[in-house]
UniProtKB/TrEMBL annotation:
Residues 7-195 form the Thiamine phosphate synthase/TenI domain. Belongs to the thiamine-phosphate synthase family. This is Thiamine-phosphate synthase. Its cofactor is Mg(2+). InterPro entries: Aldolase_TIM, Haem_Oase-like_multi-hlx, HMP/HMP-P_kinase_dom, PM/HMP-P_kinase-1, Ribokinase-like, Thiaminase-2/PQQC, ThiamineP_synth_sf, ThiamineP_synth_TenI. Residues 227-474 form the Pyridoxamine kinase/Phosphomethylpyrimidine kinase domain. The keyword DNA-binding does not apply. Transmembrane segments: none annotated. Binds 1 Mg(2+) ion per subunit. It is an enzyme of class 2 (transferase). Pathway: Cofactor biosynthesis; thiamine diphosphate biosynthesis; thiamine phosphate from 4-amino-2-methyl-5-diphosphomethylpyrimidine and 4-methyl-5-(2-phosphoethyl)-thiazole: step 1/1; Cofactor biosynthesis; thiamine diphosphate biosynthesis; 4-amino-2-methyl-5-diphosphomethylpyrimidine from 5-amino-1-(5-phospho-D-ribosyl)imidazole: step 3/3. The gene is thiE. It comes from the Bacteria.
Length: 716
């Protein structure tokens, strides 16, 4: 069994001073220590056995208790009913093989190893003889005057690098070594004076653990049922653990045939097989936190309870699952009684209101009643209680966490999020909480972080469209939106998304009097000339912006495309203008003589600000509407979407219509759209958002540009 080695207290009677070893151990365990080694080189075996009996009483199953070297004392204390899990042996102490033989297969036996030869000797031992190694000293220490040569953290790393056993660092370990030792491969920190000599061993232990937990990826085990629809059970747990920064593992208690509408059937494999799964994991992997969900029946509960007693994981969050969101039962009545025995083994219990009523044995009438019942339950079982308000009526869905032992009590108000997708909210919240605690967050902070993530996952859930009943939350929705985990989005989906984003602007353009009159040929000539004069001023600057896109282009073919487009804006489209504005006369004379209208100024200022203040991706997004909107409008006009007359070669504005319905312009538009979607797909979410915004603003300027003639030219 691999116990939780993260913070390993080795006692020293001298350093514990007047407070004494037993009181120091009690305080350290209150602070989160989960493995203790009684080390006293002077006491007799009988005295050591007495201390072990006393320590076993104080520890009360909350931590692993080992003794240094004294196998006889361990056996004597066991004979007196003490729980002594094993021994730690030095190189010169009793043989590990003999100790294993005398203490049994379930015992935990540690061995000191400080040199390559020691590690070679360990590698030659049969499997299962030694459970972990103590490797040091990290720096000089007074607690072991005859200590071996100082390894330092690099020396530690080189020794443990290829070792299959978990190795704890020992000897002069300071809290500021935490991150570097974990990074160097330590399975935990064995500390002596840092805690024994501490003014406040509980607070010191808490500080060590916070640093240790925050410095790595927590390995979180879900012990729960399977929900094939993915919204609850171990499926939801694994997603929740990953979304909150943990590595998720899962041992299955039951298989359900369920979906978002309800539970059709439940199959519970033999509880012995669950224990096999649990042992397979804990024999190999250090577990930083456990989340317990659906337990199905009393046999399963007993199997989990026995394993917890043997393993004593540092963090246990118990979600007392009794009924699914659909209302179907997930725990039989006999098991509800057995569940109570499990509560004492949890650090946090997370009942919803119905589950709280069942566990507190009295009906819950409103939120204040729930808070009182949660406080009483916490006081009775010694675990913190996170009572969840999701099933309250009305618009408020508060939660609250109460830890009677630590005097913690905090409410978390929250408005109900309008969604049906609440399947698995409880499973997900408790798994997120276990992960956050394993990352070193305090109880109240971890609840706040888990809730915040859950609420974001509820808000993002409508995008999933899973099932006809209560759908699942979107476990990674927030991360995808913030660009943390988004896979490269599908270009076609992006294109549709962008085009849809400006649907309202496109509809407004279609509704403009200018467009309607252009289509049916009644457009006032002065309006059209006003539009053309402004468009000439626009195109001259637009060409410069396209030239800038060419300059910034990341590839030759994009560079060529934007350069050709710049040329087209000055040459091709201005030929159109010249034929209208000054037939035969010098194009410059008349074409650019108009004062730029406000809409023209605003649009060009926008383009310049993007061209010379942002990056290539945003720039080509900003110029895209001038391609895409015009091609769309021109092809629809030419296709008769606004009436057949627009297709008539005799139409008074036929040359304008032909320009924007030109297949070559349509092809250029498709190429421009392709470059922009490529850039968007390869960008992170923040840049994708900036690109879309630049595209949207340009589209709004296009609308204002088409609307300008009606504002500035009295209808003829
Ligand atoms: N519509 C909602 N809006 C906001 N928060 C919600 C909503 N529904 C549930 N929650 C929150 O989800 C979490 C789970 O609460 P709930 O009461 O649903 O647990 P549960 O019944 O155990 O869920 P499950 O059905 O997964 O077992 C709580 O934090 C609760 O406040
Ligand atoms: C397997 C499983 N566990 C828990 C729940 C609670 O919602 C569920 N519906 N299914
Ligand atoms: Mg629940």
């Amino acid at each position: 069994m691999i116990a939780d080695l993260s913070l390993y207290l080795v006692t020293d009677p001298g350093l514990c001073g007047e407070r004494g070893v037993v009181e120091t151990v009690r305080l350290a365990i209150d602070g989160g220590v989960r493995i203790v080694q009684l080390r006293d080189k002077i006491a007799t075996d009988a005295e050591t056995a007495d201390q072990l009996v006393e320590l076993s009483r104080v520890i009360d199953g909350r931590a692993i208790l080992l003794v240094n070297d004294r196998v006889d004392a361990a056996l004597a204390a066991r004979a007196r009913g003490a729980r002594v899990d094993g021994v730690h042996l030095g190189q010169g102490d009793a043989s590990v093989l003999r100790a294993r033989e005398r203490l049994g297969a379930e015992a935990i036996i540690g061995l000191t190893a400080n040199t390559p030869d020691h590690f070679d000797a360990v590698a030659a031992l049969p499997a299962g003889v030694v459970d972990y190694l103590g490797v040091g000293v990290i720096r000089p220490t007074d607690t072991k005057p005859d200590h071996p040569p100082v390894l330092g953290i690099d020396g530690f790393r080189s020794l443990v690098d290829t070792c299959a056993l978990p190795c704890v660092a020992i000897g002069g370990v300071d809290i500021d070594d935490t991150e570097r030792l974990r990074d160097a491969g330590a399975a935990g920190l064995a500390v002596v004076s840092a805690i024994c000599a501490a003014v406040d061993p509980k607070q010191t232990a808490q500080s060590f653990l916070r640093r240790w937990r925050a410095s790595g990826t927590p390995r979180v085990l879900s012990i729960a049922g399977s929900d094939p629809s993915g919204g609850a059970g171990i499926q939801a747990d694994l997603k929740s653990i990953a979304a909150n920064g943990g590595y998720g593992m899962a041992a299955l208690t039951a298989l359900t045939a369920q979906n978002t509408v309800g539970v059709r059937a439940v199959h519970v494999p033999p509880a012995e097989f669950l224990r096999e799964q649990l042992d397979a994991i804990s024999d190999d992997i250090v577990i930083d936190a456990v989340k317990i969900g659906m337990l199905a029946n009393a046999d399963v509960i007993r199997a989990v309870s026995d394993w917890l007693d043997a393993m004593r994981p540092p963090i246990v969050v118990l979600d007392p699952v009794m009924v699914a969101t659909s209302g179907d039962r997930l725990l039989d009545r006999e098991a509800e009684v057995a569940l109570r025995g499990l509560l004492e083994r949890a650090h946090v219990v997370t009942p919803n209101l119905a589950e709280l009523a069942a566990l507190a044995d009295h009906p819950i009438d409103g939120w204040d009643d729930a808070l009182a019942a949660a406080a009483a339950l916490s006081d009775r079982v010694g675990a913190a209680v996170l009572v969840k308000g999701g099933h309250l009526d009305g618009d408020d869905v508060p939660d609250a966490v109460i830890d009677a032992a630590d005097g913690v009590s905090r409410g978390y108000p929250g408005a109900r999020i309008a969604t049906r997708n609440t399947h698995g909210t409880g499973c997900s919240l408790s798994s997120a909480l276990a992960t956050r605690l394993a990352r070193g967050e305090s109880l109240t902070d971890a609840v706040a972080s888990a809730r915040s993530w859950l609420r974001e996952s509820l808000t993002e859930s409508d995008a999933l469209h899973v099932g006809r009943g209560h759908g699942p939350i979107n476990h990674f929705g927030g991360l995808w939106r913030r660009g943390g985990l988004e896979t490269t989005p599908d270009r076609a989906r992006l294109r549709d998304q962008w085009w849809e984003r400006i649907a309202h602007l496109r509809a407004d353009i279609d509704e403009l009097p200018f467009v309607g009159a252009l289509a049916d040929g009644t457009l006032d000539r002065e309006w059209f000339l006003f539009y053309l004069r402004q468009d000439a001023l626009y195109l001259r600057e637009y060409a410069r912006v396209l030239a800038e896109a060419s300059r910034l282009a990341p590839s030759p073919h994009e560079q060529a495309f934007w350069a050709e487009s710049a040329h087209g804006a000055i040459a091709g489209e201005l030929e159109l203008h010249a034929s209208w504005l000054t037939p035969g006369a010098g194009v410059e004379a008349e074409t650019f003589a108009a004062d730029p209208a406000p809409a023209t100024v605003a649009y060009l200022d926008h383009l310049r600000s993007v061209a010379f203040g942002a990056d290539y991706a945003e720039l080509i997004a900003a110029v895209l509407p001038c391609f895409w909107l015009y091609t769309d409008l021109g092809t629809r006009l030419h296709a008769g979407a606004f009436g057949e007359y627009a297709r008539d070669p005799q139409h008074p504005y036929a040359s304008w219509l032909a320009t924007y319905a030109d297949p070559a312009f349509e092809a250029a538009t498709e190429q421009a759209v392709g470059y922009v979607m490529d850039a968007a797909a390869q960008s992170d979410a923040p840049r994708r958002r900036r690109m879309l915004r630049a595209f949207e603003v340009s589209s709004a300027h296009e609308l204002a540009f088409f609307a300008a003639p009606a504002l500035h030219v009295p209808a003829g």
